[in-house]
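Hi support team,

I'm filing this because I wasn't sure whether my run with adenosine monophosphate finished correctly. The job status page said complete, but I'd like someone to confirm that the output block is well-formed before I use it downstream. Pasting the exact inputs I used:
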Amino acid sequence: MENGKTLKEIGWNFDNSYARLPESFFKSVNPTHVRSPKLIFLNDQLATIMGLSFQELKSEEGVEFLAGNRIPEGAAPLAQAYAGHQFGNFTMLGDGRAVLLAEQITPEDERFDIQLKGSGRTPYSRGGDGRASLGPMLREYIISEAMYALGIPTNRSLAVVTTGEAVIRETELPGAILTRVADSHLRVGTFQYVAKWGKGKDLETLADYTINRHFPDVETSETRYLSLLQEVIKRQAELIAKWQLVGFIHGVMNTDNMAISGETIDYGPCAFMNSYNPATVFSSIDRQGRYAYGNQPPIGGWNLARFAETLLPLLHEDSEKAVKIAQAEISNYMELYRSHWLAGMRSKLGIFNEETDDESLINDLLVMMEKYQSDYTNTFRALTFDKPADFVLFGTPEFAKWKEVWQSRLERQEESRASSHRLMQRSNPAVIPRNHRVEEALEAAVENEDYSVMEKLLEVLSSPYDHSLEQEDYCTPPPESSQPYQTFCGT
Ligand code: AMP
Ligand code: MG
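And here is everything the job wrote out:
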């Protein structure tokens, strides 16, 4: 690199495996130059994990990298091709406002995609401007980092820079670029694209690449494509159970937004549920409630069925047999999901072992929570600390009865009350990114360039299971409002 930081100073250590895949899988494209980049947030902890020097990334030249104005030596910027079912309709998509800058190999020898989101037009931009505005990029930063701290697989956020340029939405908004770090950006939609438009051995190439990158244990197996399907199903069942357990609503579970790695990806109109109601939807565009909280598990199954369809030619040469194999795997998904969810719910109630009536114990509680509109997170918090606070639910005879059954259930297990309490503490977060807290942080940042509110929020969200006094202020649900909270796609 002429007159600049050396690779070693920043810590770049690239190996761009995706760029070595067939040409039709992507288009090489550089980020578009922006006028005056300014660093807003840098994730020091993540930079360190990545083997990158956060001091150097904060320098003028480091920020030029994060804005896409300079391309580090050895990077191979590209936009990935993918398709997807959006609200059930199949369409060609691709990275319309993002570029995969490079794959970083960390000091621990892990491989991460470094992607710039909001970095300008690409051949897949269709009518879009390829840009992102500051609010949604900060929102992704907050929620993805909160998910990480909650212990939920997710892509992460390394940095947000503003571009010094306005983006035109309903009004003019400050433009921004998010640096996103992911195990990979392979999606169900990547397989859909290759299955539909790939040539020759493309599908096999993509499947082999995916196995090598994410499931190396099955690489030498003769039935490795079946194992690929099984592994992807397993990870999604586990991921979606984790979402349900914390009340996370993704908002736009299109097949292009489902990562093969099993990470949560594409934080658009997502939000956390307050009072428990399976019909909860926040996204303004989800008018039918397709992606409502309670629909997430079956929609996961629907998306996985689309994934299985793409693999049919690799599962068996006889297409009828291939369909049978795929169907058998897909029908396992709901059961797998249910067992993860049940295990997680048992932990949330301090239960270590299994009894057949556990599911009805859990469901009885959820039915009451829905009836009395109990705050999802705070109900479990109150149960953890045996402080049934001021919810309507806790004053009802129904609850008193349920509590007796629960208490005798706890009596029947070997573990002490103290270990039950500890299990509940680490299974029930005190803080989640409450919508009103997120909005408050974004407003201060975007309207007043005051980032202190977001900094404080990030700090609180970084240890959700601490149950500390400082967190109390962040535990309150939003005040009742006449307008339901709505989220918008991150444009
Ligand atoms: P998303 O709703 O974020 O999953 O995006 C759906 C598709 O629209 C993806 O192909 C994106 O790359 C593309 N897209 C979203 N916003 C823009 C934009 N401002 N410019 C170009 N493409 C976009
Ligand atoms: Mg997307």
